[in-house]
Design a protein that fits this description.
Keywords: DNA-binding, Sigma factor, Transcription, Transcription regulation. By secondary structure, this protein is mainly α. It has a domain of 87 residues: Rna Polymerase Sigma Factor, Chain: A (Orthogonal Bundle), CATH 1.10.1740. The chain has nine helices and no strands.
Amino acid sequence: MDKHLGDDDDTARFEAMAMPHLDAAYNLARWLTRNQHDADDLVQNAYLRAFRFHGGFRGGDARAWLLTIVRHTYYTTLRDGLPQDGDVSYDEALHDRDGGGDPADIAASRDAGRSVDSALARLPPAFREVLVLKEMDEMSYKEIAQVTATPIGTVMSRLARARKLLLAYLQPDQAGD
């Protein structure tokens, strides 16, 4: 008889392996798509693919395996020409961690957050993804190389270039000096 998609043992094994990495998957999806709603869809589609094929997972780093699926799902979506919303809006509810405080400090923090969000959005996707994986998901160069299917040297080069570009995007315009 065919194996049922909803088999309880199979589902429990997948959940134990995959659910601890949901935040990392969403974080990568958010920065790849630059849109909260597209990120939600991307993670859902990636986790469905991961569930369907987790029987082929042969051990190792489950987080890297899942983030690879998120990344491949994103690029497959782009390749297939499915609509992508270019919205780069800043979701204050998602990023506002302080429930109170000095309004001037909160406003300055939000402005800084918007600047960083905008600068990250300007980075080419290959640079943005390595920066997010390294700085926000705290992955090693080896893990990033595995997720992006690129040599470690390329990861290090992209990361250095991404940091340099990000810094340039965050620097105030000095043309008037």
